[in-house]
Amino acid sequence: MKTGLLLVLILCLPVFLQGQTRPEISTVDITYFWSAFDQLSEAKNHADSVEIIQKNYIDVCSNVYNKYIQRSNISAEEYVTLFTIYPNYWRAIRPLTEQITNRRDELETALQKLAATIPGFKIPDIYFGIGCLRQGGTIKGNTIIIGAELAAADTLIDKSELSTWLKSVVGKTGDIVAMTAHESIHVQQTWFPLGEFFSLAKHQQLRLLNMAILEGSADYITTSVLGLNINAGIREYGLQHECELWKISKHPSQMTHLIIRNGYTMATQLATCLQIWDILLGIKLRKPILIAKQIKTKHIQLFLNVGNIGRFLKKVTINI
Prior knowledge:
mainly alpha; 17 helices
């Protein structure tokens, strides 16, 4: 009897382990959002609209997305204001967000390819919701949170009403699969330089070079493994300022404490980081990083675990 039970457990073990590698992919918050949105037709005034969004979306959404809303200080008031400012955009983005529930296989395939390349890759859970046009993706622990109102936009989306910054990023991130893959790399990144606590406390962001490693490595890995890059379009700024950045990169030690000032737009900040990443690796690899023909496991592990620019420059002596 015991032998039979043991045999059953052994036979079932591979199935159980396989189930452990599949992510939880939740789109329920998208459903809640558009249900609340449709109820706005019953609102008699602005206050009614705010109450509808609060009670029928924010108060009932998943625990994961609700916590994200609270951390981000997103309010029902902000949603209603955005509906008024960008009515055409919300109508245009709706069908793209509602299609996400049918794209689970694409998301799982991308994560499995990364898992097959990166030893110890942690398969993250993914929660899709609708935010306030602030953030396409972020992570909390082993969970990815995607703002579908940005991440799902394609190149044909109506952007005529949007602000200059939104026009510069909407529809240029390569769709939800690319965004999810990018954020999944951030889940794997295990380093955090001690000195960055001081930078975060004073400037509310990482220092430029460490930010370059953080974002640049995520782009490098997803591009090399999947051919996906959420920041392909935003690199235009870096290319336009290439000479300036090359001058800075000749003395990387002088950049250690450089902070991107608030006067820069978010797009400019990220583009600067990514251009510096390309420059730093270009110095060591002697070739542009994004045309590398192959990627080796040891390189990926280096990019995921190096915690500061000094160690990075010391260790990146590889040839691809």
